[in-house]
Design a protein that fits this description.
Blueprint: E1 12-16, H1 20-30, E2 42-47, E3 64-67, H2 72-79, E4 84-87, H3 94-106, E5 111-113, H4 124-129, H5 131-146, E6 197-202, E7 205-206, H6 207-213, E8 218-219, E9 224-228, E10 234-238, H7 240-252, H8 254-257, E11 260-263, E12 267-270, H9 271-282, E13 287-291, H10 293-305, H11 309-322, H12 330-334, H13 338-341, H14 348-361
Parallel strand pairs: 1-2, 1-4, 2-3, 4-5, 5-6, 6-11, 7-10, 9-13
Antiparallel strand pairs: 8-9, 10-12
Length: 370
């Protein structure tokens, strides 16, 4: 990503988490500079006490590290003085997310980016299949219930008042939603309201990460793939690097996109296109098998019922990509924020070849991958 030159009132950014999402966000924000060439942000990472920070190599600045036991008092202390918090942990844990958000408001933090970075959480059929996604949707409703910003920005399709999804079901915000808690009082002791703003972003499947792990059914080691559906079903995806770039651009365009649920996938692809690209990247013919999407759902449910929730859930997540009836890609196609954010489309070839390279060279000291 080319260095961004920016001026913004957002200077102090705290990222919660120490895994790949937090790392790519830190790397992207670390590369942003002001007009005078100085780093744009003071960056802080918040983790549990036992966790280390996975900071980018060759960082322009020293990234501060704070720890917390994630009690409300500890979180308020950690958040003091920050302009923005970005949550990259426990996206499906409603109680923890709300605790973090409430602590941010109580600490006087004005902005939050919740943990999304995946499929369309506002799609009710996806919520029905994936309970953690339903929890993420509850978090969006909660954020809407406490926001205090004013007018509707232009340039981004609104989903605030019942975005009409594929089935005609309202999957937007209702101020009378029974899931919303009483929340926090976003006022100072003198009664002045503290403005609180948020942006959530769906990026689709993080393609390179899923290819390396094999969670999508593509086995790079043995050049084989199991595809659910016809293989021609379109789905939204992004590279891991793209997630960081999206966050950097959201901050740069904050006033244009605040208090919105954004769709910012790097690309739209299909399983058959990925197979073709994998064959080109590996230089080998792949063995490909096809199965019905309903079989993926059935096996996922069976694994969960047998006491293997993680193994079952990744199959359920895979089924969302390949199940045409869910129309999970439609919001990304119709409501893309990429133009507003100044983001170009990613190349399927580049993302897939990068995943193959990572799989083949991960851990090799002489790789030079950077």
């Amino acid at each position: 990503m080319a260095d961004l030159k920016m001026e913004s009132e957002i200077k102090k950014v705290l990222v919660i988490g120490n895994e790949s999402l937090s790392s790519t966000i830190l790397k992207a924000l670390d590369s942003v500079t002001q007009a005078d060439g100085q780093p744009a942000y003071n960056l802080t990472v918040l983790t549990y006490p036992s966790q280390a920070v996975k900071a980018p190599s060759q960082s322009l600045i020293k990234i501060a590290h704070k720890t917390s036991d994630f009690t409300p008092a500890s979180l308020r202390s950690a958040f003091a003085g920050q302009d923005l918090i970005i949550i990259t942990i426990s996206g499906g844990d409603y109680s923890l997310q709300v605790r973090i958000i409430n602590a941010a408001v109580a600490a006087g933090v004005k902005r939050c980016i919740p943990h999304e970075f995946g499929p369309d959480s506002l799609n009710e059929d996806i919520q029905a299949r994936l309970p953690p996604i339903e929890e993420r949707a509850r978090i969006i409703r909660y954020l809407r219930s406490i926001q205090t910003a004013g007018s509707q920005p232009s340039g981004i399709p609104s989903v605030a008042n019942g975005y009409a999804n594929h089935a005609g079901k309202g999957c937007g915000y209702s101020s009378h939603d029974g899931d919303i808690e009483d929340g926090v009082n976003s006022q100072t002791s003198s009664g002045h309201k503290i403005p609180f703003e948020w942006v959530a972003v769906a990026v689709g499947c993080i393609l390179d990460t899923k290819l390396v792990s094999g969670d999508l059914g593509f086995d790079i080691k043995w050049q084989s793939a199991t595809i659910h559906g016809s293989g021609n079903e379109s789905f939204a995806a992004s590279s891991l690097q793209r997630v960081g770039e999206v966050i950097a651009s959201i901050i740069q365009h904050w006033d244009q996109v605040k208090n919105r649920y954004l769709y910012a996938a790097g690309l739209i692809t299909s399983a058959n296109e990925i197979v073709g690209t994998l064959q080109k990247a590996t230089g080998k013919e792949w063995t490909v098998g096809y199965a019905e999407t309903v079989e993926c759902v059935r096996e996922g449910q069976a694994r969960i019922e047998r006491g293997f929730p993680d193994a079952g859930m990744f199959l359920m997540e895979r089924s969302v990509l390949f199940d045409r009836e869910l129309k999970a890609v439609e919001a990304f196609e119709r409501n893309s924020a990429n133009k507003t954010l100044g983001l170009a489309q990613e190349s399927v070839d580049r993302v897939v070849s990068g995943a193959v390279h990572e799989f083949q060279h991960s851990g090799k000291v002489d790789c030079g991958c950077g």
